[in-house]
Design goal:
337 residues; TIM Barrel; alpha/beta; Enolase-like, domain 1; 2 domains; binds magnesium ion; single chain; 3-stranded antiparallel beta sheet
């Protein structure tokens, strides 16, 4: 098993501003695993808040040796092996895991979604995120997002109400709200859950700082809308801790170390009677298709990577009526432009 990889700078259509920071591009690693003449494609998207970058990814990959790994792949063993090299580095671990799932699909000539029992009829609508911006730009972005039937709004600043009202001036689509830990005052956060409910918001992500489960739990207890843990829930071990703090969790492949552990997290959440939102970072079609393969097992999807970036090197995934379309092509079905 051979691994090849290269850095890739994924450019965003608009500077992406959320509570806490702003950026215009995201460093990626595009990775290939080669096995008996077949190639599996993977991707790491390294957003600043998880502490990964090209240097950490490169240092990690220099220690990875998959010569011991043979088909059929044992993904538990793979993840244990990757975790034994270093803690953290979930995005680069995800790149390897995703590439191996793509490869497995190509070896078996079946699409990745069949590994998890995902069915198109259960595919949820996906939202498109509108980052913080001026009112004029917000209106422009909402109109551009006309293919999506749900808009996700980034809240967590003193301008939350103004932002939501601006969106409401151009669309009555249902909304997701993401505070990205930006609400600091419990009384205000509680009031906002009710106000957002009145405005047609379907869920709220990470209202309070991730290190304060008590505050998040108190928001949840009285909220008329599901409260979803995102920054506080990264890998399988975090799901149990989220019970009683959030109604549900936001799973992202770049946090969960890939598809295998994301699937385990979905199963664990079900066991705990918690809902799942499947989300993404700034990603190309590779990780988006990997997320879409799991999305039918989740209540909600927020897989808007291809809509928010301008140099996706692959064909955009099939998308109709606000939903991704699962295809029959082997593996993830990534097509190079
Ligand atoms: Mg979020």
């Amino acid at each position: 098993m051979k691994i090849n990889w290269r850095p890739y700078q994924l450019e965003l259509k608009y500077p992406f501003t959320i509570s806490g920071f702003s950026r215009t591009a995201t460093p990626l690693i595009l990775l290939e695993v080669e096995y008996e003449g077949l190639i599996g494609l993977g991707e790491a998207s390294m957003v600043p808040y998880l502490g990964e970058n090209l240097e950490t990814a490169s240092a990690f990959l220099s220690k990875v040796d998959l010569s011991w790994l043979n088909y059929p792949f044992d993904f538990d063993e793979l993840i244990n092996y990757l975790d034994s090299i270093a803690d953290g580095n979930p995005a680069v671990k995800a790149a390897i895991d995703i590439a191996l799932h793509d490869l497995q699909g190509k070896i078996e000539n079946r699409p990745c979604h069949t590994f998890f029992g995902s069915k198109q009829e259960n595919m949820p609508l996906t939202s498109q995120t509108i980052g913080m911006d001026t009112s004029e730009m917000i209106r422009k972005k909402v109109l551009e997002a006309r293919g999506c039937k749900i808009i996700k709004v980034k809240v967590g600043s003193e301008k939350d109400k103004e932002l939501v009202e601006t969106i409401r001036s151009v669309t009555d689509k249902p909304l997701f709200a993401d505070a990205n830990q930006g609400w600091k005052d419990l009384g205000m956060a509680k009031e906002m859950t009710h106000w957002l409910y009145e405005k047609g918001v379907l869920l709220i992500e990470q209202p309070m700082p991730k290190h304060n489960p008590d505050a998040n739990a108190r928001v949840m207890e009285q909220s008329p809308i599901p409260i979803i843990g995102d920054e506080s829930v990264q890998r399988l071990r975090d799901v149990k801790k989220a019970k009683g703090v959030y109604h549900g969790i936001n799973i992202k492949l770049m946090k969960s170390a890939g598809m295998h552990e994301a699937f385990q997290m979905i199963q664990k959440a079900r066991e705990l009677d918690m809902k799942v939102l499947i989300g993404c970072m700034s990603e190309t079609s590779i990780a988006t298709l990997a997320g879409a393969a799991l999305a039918p097992l989740c209540a909600w999807a927020d897989l808007d990577g291809p809509f928010l970036t301008k140099n996706n090197p692959y064909t955009n995934p099939g998308f109709e009526n606000g939903k991704y379309v699962l295809k029959d092509s082997p593996g993830l079905g990534v097509e190079v432009l």
